[in-house]
Write a structure and sequence with these properties.
- Residues 223-254 are annotated as: Disordered.
- By secondary structure, the chain is mainly alpha-helical.
- It has one domain (4-248): Phosphate transport system protein phou homolog 2, domain 2 (Methane Monooxygenase Hydroxylase, Chain G, domain 1), CATH 1.20.58.
- It is built from six helices and two strands.
- A two-stranded antiparallel sheet has the order 1-2.
- Helix 1 runs antiparallel to helix 2, helix 3 runs antiparallel to helix 6 (185-217) and helix 5 runs antiparallel to helix 6 (185-217).
- The longest helix has 41 residues, at 4-44.
- The radius of gyration is 21 Å and the shape is elongated.
- The protein starts with a helix and ends in a 6-residue tail after the last strand.
- Residues 1-5 and 247-254 have low confidence and may be disordered.
Length: 254
Amino acid sequence: MTDPRGEHIVRAFDAELQELEHTIVRMGGMAEAALETAVEALARRNSTVAAEVVQGDREIDLLEQQISERSIHTLALRQPMASDLREVVAALRISGELERIGDYAANIAKRAMALNQLPPMRPAHSIPRMARLVQSNIKRVLDAYVARDAELAAHVWESDEEIDETYTSLFRETLTYMMEDPRNITPCTHLLFIAKNIERIGDHATNVAELVYYLVKGQRLEGGRPKGDTSSYTVVEPPEGGRGRAATEESPKP
């Protein structure tokens, strides 16, 4: 004989988990849109749109607080075990990753407003392509979360290397422009920060992919995280004939 009270508790718990999932997806969509809008504001040199991204970050922060409070309440009240415990902990940690994505998008928007006061710079044209790669990963990892698709999450995890390589290429190009003309230093510095923010957003999307994989499989992804960022080893060579060139040294051997 089924205990009606037990069924009620299970249904209530399922409803709480579904509400957490829905809020995560909503928050993820807002973070993805914030990145897209911030980069659009940069490309179109639209400070009004950039300011809207900065203001909108507050709503993402509020959702993260709601998820945190609900997750802690569920852990205390339900004391979930096994896969149910992973569901709650994953929601709590994923919300933190998405909140950071929103913060970086707001930072990009702030830099865009500063750049809009300066003459356009050619390296800025490479930013949207890099951002599209990151946006694709955000969307795919959210799809993986909703579908509980560990394979898709692993694909997102692996594709972060392409984003790192794009960042390194942009880093070298921007350094070259800075060496060619000191007047380029200020705008190029803003561009470097923007590119780094986008690269970090990619890292947070990768973190979400790891959490989704663990949520589904109950184990972590094996092997080291693929990395293609060699900007840490980039050095500036002395100008030759009035032009400088950025080079990347070989990574030091362990």
